[in-house]
Records
---
Amino acid sequence: MFKVNDNYLKLPGSYLFSTVARKDREFRAAHPDKKVIKLSIGDVTQPLAPAIIDSLHKAVDEMSKAETFKGYAPDLGYEFLRNAIVENDYKSREVDVSADEIFVSDGAKSDSANIQEIFALDNKIAVCDPVYPVYVDSNVMAGRTGTYDKETGLWSDVIYMPCLEANGFAPELPKETPDIIYLCFPNNPTGATIKKSMLQDWVDYANRVGAVIIYDAAYEAYISEADVPHTIYECEGARTCAIELKSFSKNAGFTGTRLGYTVVPKDLKAADGTALNPLWARRHGTKFNGAPYIVQRAGEAVYSDAGKAETKAQIAYYMNNAKVIYEGLKDAGYSVSGGVNAPYIWLKTPDHMSSWDFFDYLLEKANVVGTPGSGFGPSGEGYFRLTAFGTYENTVEAIDRIKKM
Amino acid sequence: MFKVNDNYLKLPGSYLFSTVARKDREFRAAHPDKKVIKLSIGDVTQPLAPAIIDSLHKAVDEMSKAETFKGYAPDLGYEFLRNAIVENDYKSREVDVSADEIFVSDGAKSDSANIQEIFALDNKIAVCDPVYPVYVDSNVMAGRTGTYDKETGLWSDVIYMPCLEANGFAPELPKETPDIIYLCFPNNPTGATIKKSMLQDWVDYANRVGAVIIYDAAYEAYISEADVPHTIYECEGARTCAIELKSFSKNAGFTGTRLGYTVVPKDLKAADGTALNPLWARRHGTKFNGAPYIVQRAGEAVYSDAGKAETKAQIAYYMNNAKVIYEGLKDAGYSVSGGVNAPYIWLKTPDHMSSWDFFDYLLEKANVVGTPGSGFGPSGEGYFRLTAFGTYENTVEAIDRIKKM
């Protein structure tokens, strides 16, 4: 008699963004005359850059001829892409990462959900609160999080690191020692970052206590300030304690094209000496079959001279939106943060409204969809996330509407 | 102190096809003058059909303009693709499957590895022997298979269903009752199939004992005989006991383009009443972010009139190769099976050679790479798999060389 994985049944409600999408859909259906503006999910709106489009067309043509057709990709991803990654994302910053430490995937969401598989089930995770829900949910599904307390919204076996106004939305070293630490900078959802010296403290801590850091750097391209690290491997000792996740979704608009990569340094070993790089290679080779060839070529084009210039312009476009949101909300009297090194603006709901109440209020009054902070964890209650990924016109209109509420 | 998932450490050696690839690579490096012909991994060689190429170019163009650009895909996959699947793969056969039971993915390999996640860890799996390694390996990684016996090549907590010459390479109902049964027809690696009445017996058995069948129909398009089922849902009662996996890799050459889907009927429930469809939806929504839009459009094109005609011609091309291999080997005195409803030929090694000895012998003497039967499980020992996915010219040459050995 087969039984289900009852860890799944512990998950409260549905995935945050599915709920947001459902509420959005229902509102549009009930009010077909209203123009709803979506500043909720971190989904880009600008088309793929011309250099990327060119490379996609070329790769499609290759797939049309027997001589240049490509079947199964190499397990780790094509060398042309892994070499471009090493050259541009690491060597250019004098950071030591080699091509056989890069694992090309279909995106950072899959990687951030799957990476926990290579660790023991009794390992304890530490997460920021608020946090990108996938880190916690994937560990819930695996059975690593204990029981859920509906009152507090907390899991019994998870170490939470509150990110609040008081600490500048940056986590402090946890009192209880974790085995696996999830960090994301620039942060989703708060848009906060930490300086290199602070990240170095985390690396030193992880090495000291024997923890592994899962470092999500999906928003790295949005960093504008000089002392904010672009990769955790800028910190000394990170190669023995950190895995890094990267995405092409936000720097190059690949949310619907799907590409990402994970770095697992060969120096990263468990206490018993087991190296993580071959474990992840085994997972990759057994449970995944590579990103599409044409998409890997598109990824390569992101690193071409034209691709770099064009995607840089897109990032500037979104960061201008971030400025519009940040300053508009501030003018309107909101308490806001983020939006400087990240495409997210984190605002305090007015009049102590709950996050979901503010969601409904904003949708009803301004026809703007955002993301309730409480969806990212208990410490997100009373906060709200807006993204800079809309069009400029919609962003300006949304902020105007919010100002008039 | 973080620890690794020590189930990974139980896995013997590396993934079968990685080992085959390594031996191939080493031989080529040592003998740069030899022309090695690869009939090992089931990787296609014909380019994508013109109708698919057209739709890819069109979709790439859509990604280049803001008005038609696509970001994150719907969780289950685009409706245009799910509707085309329902219409062509199910309704046309008068089989009841609806669009919200279809989950579009990046391929059947991922799905066949991930599907075990929604089941309890103490559920017992039954697999054919020989079998596609991913079914077993993904369960090893999850910790569901007990201990590995190096002598026998068997896992203590897996129910093996030997597929031998004596039973026409078709599994018999197991003596011990499993919770999860993996079936693959047309079979990889043996190329065998079973008739609809036999599959009905499996469905009846699963419903009787409360087991779930994971039915891998990746090779469905290669069926040429009338009484062989194209989908398990042709059998009465399959909606309450079976999940079906499908791939675009073999019917349309998507091995390097990556697309597949899984069917989880809403009627499929565990003994406690928990429905599997929403569980898989939750997994899909939390740990995956959809197949690329352009690839989903390519999948839709497979079902267009031109796409159907063109991919049908490709399948005929490969099946002609299968005939060349089957008849050539038979002429040469080999004992062969498969190759009628499947692109795989399963041959008995001559003179009681071991599978890996024959691999080395074939590579050395004929410069042909195949797959050792023992790599698929202990009952595959003494057998060898050749695929029909090469070019016609290479296939003819490979068989000529084998004949001359």
---
Amino acid sequence: MRQSTLFTKTRREAPSDEVSRNAQLLIRAGFVHKEMAGVYDYLPLGHRTLQKIIQVIREEMNELGAHELFLTALQDPMVWQKSGRWSDDVIDVWFKTKLQNESEIGLATTHEEPLTNVMRDHINSYKDLPCSAYQFQTKFRNELRAKSGIMRGREFVMKDLYSFCKDKEEHDAFYAKAAEAYKTIFVRLGIGDKTYFTYASGGSFSKYSHEFQTVCDAGEDTIYIDEAKGIAVNEEVYNDPEVFVASGLDKESLVQVKAAEVGNIFTLGEKFSDALSLTYTTAEGNSQNVFMGSYGIGPGRVMGTIVELLSDEKGIVWPESVAPFRYHLVSLAGNDSAVSEYADSLYEALTKAGQETLYDDRDLRAGEKFADSDLMGMPWRIVVGKNAVASGELELVNRATGEVTKITREELLAR
Amino acid sequence: MRQSTLFTKTRREAPSDEVSRNAQLLIRAGFVHKEMAGVYDYLPLGHRTLQKIIQVIREEMNELGAHELFLTALQDPMVWQKSGRWSDDVIDVWFKTKLQNESEIGLATTHEEPLTNVMRDHINSYKDLPCSAYQFQTKFRNELRAKSGIMRGREFVMKDLYSFCKDKEEHDAFYAKAAEAYKTIFVRLGIGDKTYFTYASGGSFSKYSHEFQTVCDAGEDTIYIDEAKGIAVNEEVYNDPEVFVASGLDKESLVQVKAAEVGNIFTLGEKFSDALSLTYTTAEGNSQNVFMGSYGIGPGRVMGTIVELLSDEKGIVWPESVAPFRYHLVSLAGNDSAVSEYADSLYEALTKAGQETLYDDRDLRAGEKFADSDLMGMPWRIVVGKNAVASGELELVNRATGEVTKITREELLAR
């Protein structure tokens, strides 16, 4: 993308009412716009980044054999009354609104009930199980406070996967596969080494649920980590002796840290299938409740966590898998048409080779361009100036380390 | 996709409360689920179809040089009060809700105001213009009645593009390019020959807006078409003599038809830039309002219109560009392992060749499989039975025409 066509501008200062570091940097870099507290627009670079995260998650969901769908935000109270979760005392973050006929409807905080209801039309027999479905859908949560930038929004995209199995045994096998998929996802997103498989409180059908917690000062949770094992215990179950039996961890060797919950997986059991009558006929001809699980990741929260975790005093540092562009090609042409022609040609060649490149073709001073480039955080900066054209050697700068490598055009294109 | 893994089931009858033909067929085929009137979930096949439509539109928007972004559904009244559109008397389909502190917020019916406000941070100078941005975002409209299936929803995904220009001249050039892009889109989506560039009522900055109307009995609009020219006049401006001057049409040669509005393009002029103070500095140093346009397409409405237009008594007929899968591979293996191995191998080969294939590997009678296949509407059905394995010849059935061609495996893979 030619930066001259990109309408977003960087800014030196974040808005004074923005208290979270992730949103401060993302607003300054032109990735997001704050609509109101906890409600952020994704501008072109932010949208590209979010889509990169979504695509990694999508690939791993498909790998699990789950099918993608898209449920609605508007919610009929009927299905929620069946599970008892329509009440504001049970879900205290409902946004509710009204149809023209004055009947009340809700905005989805989550989708267990509506999907369980959909599945009543499709699951009849044990032959229909197991199956699983996921979506990337906007959730609305009327949080009392929203001060964590894009890490906790009143409106945010969530990937939610739901599994439907015959029994606990079949569910446990899927649950284990889903946990592995989650580990793969966070490794691919560049935060694998900081993300812990964490024991947290469960429900009626399993003593514990599991969270994926990324160690990060801006996180809202406190967890106890075993760094060597990559496993942790959430504070909420830390005083339960049985969690150490279940996790195989030794309480003595754990370290207390702040962390952000980037994913969670949960055994729902028969809670929703019982409430909404989602049953199947067994091979023996009996009727049985379907055994369910749910598995969430917030792509926006992941994006915010990456910014909190990897940024430095100059700005954002995106991992390659997440960056809106791999390369930031910075032309220092000024009025030198030989340099701008060289840079144009290199941009065309990179794009043709499928290398996603943001090309700073703007008429600005080098200092401004470098400051913008550092703030926006593409993994690799390529600098093209008079020297490059004369010597045939380009400067390739690693955003994370600052390391500068001399490289020829041919080497770059073959990279 | 192996159909045995697809949890959705077809059904012989649509729900009795569903009055629209598009939703009846889409529900029967397992593409959508009705959450409530005007609110439909997209199940896996429906989601794939919608994404195909979205991808065609996206490619043409990118071709225009527009950048994709994603604005929020939750709306701050402040920006809408500036344009006077917060009032329910002006926009009578608002859904409104409240934050925990009791302050009222809205659900986006459209995004002119919030995007104009975002652009205040980014457009300063004539050098920043022209630019354009688009999104695929959910709109919420509190329609009094919603009886047109997915063609008019209370919640629906819309592609909305907004352009920002220096003046009317620059705008007119972009507007003409956008109109061409729209024509290309509807041709690519398989409804080009039924879709008319239609003169409709305008606003303060242009006498007419333009709609893209697809001739279709289920449409809600009445238009007057010139079939040879592919141009039409909406009923709402039909009695204005000047529209015939502007369109170059002869009133005598027009035919009255029902049509569905699948797209519209609109000159907004300075209406929103003036209300929200979106100005730029001209080359001469003066402050000037930005000149805007908006350009909408409802992918769900397009999908519903295609169903209305192309379905037959057996079910849906998808154009190739829109179909969730190009091929429906129907195995009639029964207990014959030679047939099922042949079909398995063909499915693998088609998938490897990048040919999107739905593989009916279920253990069902041939009649049921064919009925499902006709209802679901993939463009090409491949039938694999004992004869195919023995003779090496497959039956390729064209869903639209019913025409059967004999084809070898090699010919199919080379297709």
---
Amino acid sequence: MAFQYSQELLNQVSLLIQQNDEQGVVDLLKDLHYADIAEILDELNTYEATYIFNSLDTEITSEILLEIDEDVREKILQSLSAKEIADELTELDSDDAADIIAELSEQRKQEVISELDDDEHAKDIVELLRYDEDSAGGLMAKELVKVNINWNVLTCVKEMRAQAEEVTRVHSIYVVDDNDKLKGRLSLKDLLTTSTKTPIKDVYIPKVDFVRVDDSAEEVARVMQKYDLEAIPVVDELDRLVGRITIDDIVDVIKEEAEKDYQLAAGLTEDVEADDTIFELTRARLPWLFLGLLGGVGTARIMGLFEGAIAEHAILFMFTPLIAAMAGNVGVQSSAIIVQGLANDNLKGSIGKRLMKEISLAMLNGLILAIILFSMTWFWQNDFTTAIAISTSLFFVIIMAGLIGTFVPLFLNKQGIDPAIATGPFITTCNDIFGILIYFWIAKLMLGF
Amino acid sequence: MAFQYSQELLNQVSLLIQQNDEQGVVDLLKDLHYADIAEILDELNTYEATYIFNSLDTEITSEILLEIDEDVREKILQSLSAKEIADELTELDSDDAADIIAELSEQRKQEVISELDDDEHAKDIVELLRYDEDSAGGLMAKELVKVNINWNVLTCVKEMRAQAEEVTRVHSIYVVDDNDKLKGRLSLKDLLTTSTKTPIKDVYIPKVDFVRVDDSAEEVARVMQKYDLEAIPVVDELDRLVGRITIDDIVDVIKEEAEKDYQLAAGLTEDVEADDTIFELTRARLPWLFLGLLGGVGTARIMGLFEGAIAEHAILFMFTPLIAAMAGNVGVQSSAIIVQGLANDNLKGSIGKRLMKEISLAMLNGLILAIILFSMTWFWQNDFTTAIAISTSLFFVIIMAGLIGTFVPLFLNKQGIDPAIATGPFITTCNDIFGILIYFWIAKLMLGF
């Protein structure tokens, strides 16, 4: 039931724009959701997108602005005057407005802010721009419904009506004292069933979850998910209520976090999409490939050390890609489980215990795989000693790979570095080198070359 | 500000249970959120967890039941009678109750359902059990607030009060006709500001987003995210309103989807966590490692075909792990971008265009890396021809790896198979084999052995 624009609709829109039929465009799009119009804009060229943008009401274009691709937005914003951008922002909640302003150049930022008619809104936006975008402050909106603990129910209902006008969705009513300190929350039900003269302090719920303005976005996501919250108040260093965060912003945080980890595991350094330019994609991919290249040259140098054995034990060299692949795979499996455990905050016990478990696991996997490899090699080469040497090496390589894959992300995490960088090419390159080294070293011991 | 239990608290709880001080346990835990108590239960042994469970009210234990680890839940449920489980379920929304019942054995299911006092609740749960857990039907709850289009505002407000009792959070009021067909929704604001005699059909909003009962969970997640919805109604084949899905369930779907893709990319077949048993972890890891082993043996066989060149061109064999690593890394990068594009539904254009773009990208990356490798090899070996042969091979291997990494997930997706399985060991193994083959073949052409 999700809307899908048809090529026909796109053609129709283009044609109407060519004919400069503004009313036709408006009529064609008027029943569509802004998120759907945004999808259509992403498909059109800048002239067409800007044309549509200028034809529609700011009430809907402001929402479209939030949904379109960043590069389309950049182009549309360039074609608008500071005053026009300010008009768009007036329609938006403070957090969304701040996100859009943050994408402008320093000079444009100033111009747009000075064009904002509503001083209160301008003040809110300026305040939000101060916070790190990955913190609770960067996620929160200033729009919320709050009442004073010293009021009675009647004053409260009156004030709320006025405030609720500005707030799109009322999730909770927050109770503050004269200094704006968060004291608790109010249930709408209680408010409606209590006599109008009752003081708020007799009916409010003093227990309320909150986050601090400098808590990280991940931390906010964790709290809201754990306690199944749809909105959470944000307080500053002095416990004053300064904003609230709603679950839809957290959905984005969760998705972005997951995508970042996934991309790091796949060897992509930046947040790229399939439709980015070749230059952007290269910049995201090349550093990891370069690392892999260095690792490969390292592996080749190590093999060079054992070149003397190549005449007599050529078969050993045939198995080096296998050893490298197994070391890489085991390393990625181990590190991915650790990274996910760290992200979900459900890793218990010490590093020592975790390494012990990984050793047992690697021994079990290693034993099974070594037996299979032994059978295959023996059958193929009919050389018992070599088959034993290769499979024994594999066994130890798997244990080493599991240990490195477990230890490195745990270590990085302790150092305050994102452990996700240890899942992809980093761990495979590392394990390739150590794997080949151990492999030849054990083979040398067993075959005596 | 997220709660973290201390070891001290755990010890205190254990001690109180040893002393059989039920009231002490209740007092110690009474101010904690159920999600926090669930975390504590996950840390205790089964006897202690069951003891706490039996000491607390069903109002809170039912919520704890939803939050604890699946294996702890299984053990606790085993220690409860069918009647006791039914009492827990009575406290829960139909969707949560159905999720828990679904984990029981067939016989136990029947026993528990027959013990449910509330016939309406039992009927709802039985209905929900029919749906696939990955569909809208499997996600939805039966609890919602609906009003008849033929009522007036007064009847409506009265009926709503009664219904709202059962619904934890009212997101929307849905309007249906006499046949229960979804007609639209009602804004609480309009309801409160309109005269009580106004018929509902004059004030309701006929435009409402909805999903069908057999839509996939991913589709529901996509719609709710796109349109920023906090709840969405679910209709059956006859357009009748049968349930609603809230955003907190969708947060779980998004997380699970992302984790599944991540695990597949890392070579883990099942949904495993770091704290699962060694047997479970082996079952998830071994199949992919076995695939890698087969690939490695295949690579060794291919290298065996070129064994004749080993005396004269030993250096070629030293670079096989490098070739395999680069082919694997490029393949994973390409496939990960495609898989993510497919998941986010933002891949545009044909397969042909996508492959063309990947070729350009791979040519650019390949050229840069080949030049670097050429310089390093030439410097190291001082053999121009070999250095050229190796770096030329690398160039073509990177292009091939990019093409396979792009084509395979697109192809799987067309066939209706989850493209995410093509990101991890599958693509690296595939690329190892083709990479080594191309590498030796080009080297053979250039060096003439």
---
Amino acid sequence: MTVQEKKVIAVPQVEPRTPIPIQNLRVAGPTPLPPEVLRTQSFPMLNHRGPEFAAIVKRVTLRLGYFFQTASPVLTYAASGTGGQECALVNLFSPGDHVVAITIGSFGNRFAKIATAYGLHVTRLEFPWGKAADPKVVEARLKENAPFRGVLITHNETSTGVTNDVQTLAALVRDINPEALIAVDAVSSLGCIPLEMDAWDLDVVFTGSQKGWMSPPGLMMIAASPRAWEANKTAKLPRFYFDWASSRKKLEVWQQPATPPVSIFYTLDMGMEMMLAEGREAIFERHRQAGNYIRQRAKAMGLHVLADPEYASNTVSALMKPEGVDSKALLKKLREQDHIVLAGGQDHLEGKIFRIGHLGFFSQADLDQVMDKLELRLHEAGFRG
Amino acid sequence: MTVQEKKVIAVPQVEPRTPIPIQNLRVAGPTPLPPEVLRTQSFPMLNHRGPEFAAIVKRVTLRLGYFFQTASPVLTYAASGTGGQECALVNLFSPGDHVVAITIGSFGNRFAKIATAYGLHVTRLEFPWGKAADPKVVEARLKENAPFRGVLITHNETSTGVTNDVQTLAALVRDINPEALIAVDAVSSLGCIPLEMDAWDLDVVFTGSQKGWMSPPGLMMIAASPRAWEANKTAKLPRFYFDWASSRKKLEVWQQPATPPVSIFYTLDMGMEMMLAEGREAIFERHRQAGNYIRQRAKAMGLHVLADPEYASNTVSALMKPEGVDSKALLKKLREQDHIVLAGGQDHLEGKIFRIGHLGFFSQADLDQVMDKLELRLHEAGFRG
């Protein structure tokens, strides 16, 4: 062995830890966690191959099926929502497959971008940010662009606060191509906004733990229809970590092929128990009322909602920044003075909108505080509506 | 829209939640968490794009660099250790690239399997389970199999309890091919067993939060050398979720491209603070003593350690099941009667070995209890050593 120069890396000088502030966290995920859920995080670790953890995986998996409204197994991966997009694509398709990506914002674009990165032939059907996918336009463009193997649809576009009518879109895709593989990004909608995977004949649906599930980020949940499982057998895109077949096999004994994020299973287990106690339809109604409330208050104070009113999201609202107001300074003031955390805009909407998350665990009082303080701070910034 | 048959999925009947038992959890990850770390898990969520979380990412990232002993940025992903293997491969190589996979067990085989799944030309250098990679054999076989673009090495093979001499192996790879990309799976070693990424001229090193880091599973940490970053520019394997370049770019503002597992950052922040307080060399010494202790006790009670003594791991020990003892029944009794959780064997060693994890957070009393009860239960099972 050659003698090498020793490169010693010293202990870095860092800022000390400071307490995590208590905030009214209203970005579109991570979302605040109920105390009952936070409490589960201090439970001790378990062997991910043992019977105690298997019981949790079983309960969580079966209950996820209810929220997905699917009889197919719901698979889970340590990943973000973006991991869900990649997981859907690599399990369904082969290089060169033609997919139509219906995109209405940043996350729809990301879905298309991943498909391109994996060598698919991607046709983008883009709609202006703030608009939903227009079924008539989609129908015409799909016919023009046939044949296609798959269609990528965003249920709820987190970057614009718009919810697509997935049921209608899926039905018209199916009319044009009964064998099309319909992959739905339901990251920021599932559990909050109605979606019925089997009844709507969707082929892949995925979501993330940090959105409507009262859990921290770290777990991605995905289900595939029998048609998608059939496609999976011949899909040639390379995959291993996100492979469905190995996950399904391990799920027979309520395990995962790799080590799952044990603590996120604890939170999801408790989170879904609370969700079931509230009732799925009641949760949908709570989100519907929240969406209406935020939009009404925004309009009443003279703000313009980015979303087409017919398709405005009930989990996240994007509000246009008024002329002359510095949105970065506004968000900073809300965070520092009022402990309210909102999100800015993404891509070309950076600095032009701010977004309010109203999904998962929230009360009317939380939303009241957001809108009251927003009104106050906008007023201070000279905005008179 | 066509009227579709409504497929209603009812709320599933499930077993109710039961308390998570307090156990002496001695699998090779997940590992028990110190109370200080568990406490951080009840901290409220933060905006992953806000300044409070950026401060955590910065501190964690810099400190990881110290434990990796690298000046390169340490990237993090919501993933398991298997995700680390995939992340290393897709960022370094192009289809058809020749890589030599040195494998001494199940996880080495997995690394090779992922390389094959991604269309690399893989030469496996396999060593018998329980043995380390023999530098002389590796040298000869590498010369026979040149040219090669990369070499995959397991630092600590979790399935057999064997630690490769990565420093020596890397040096001889470098002698044969100065431009070879050396990717090291340090999932169950980093932070516990000495590894110096820059000084040993390793190109990729990755680990997982649930091993030596006093954290739950869910976060994979990976670093790449300047040589690896150069290779990354021309590496053509498809990737998006695990892409380094986008992660590095976002790390400039102490963020991740996708939503990171916020709660695991809390634990890692506290876990590393505790690790630094103990001192890196003191941690290594604690693991060295633990390895010696487990092996000495095993031998004293007449058990055979699978690992070649010269390369026996200081984080996980694989003990041969004695003739006539039902290892499944033994592990069950230990778990149910003594609340001690050990792991079985993997692949062809299933039922033939049991494995004891001694990494991360443990005390001598924890190890004493494991070995005392193991001795007792083996005696009850008729084993007289």
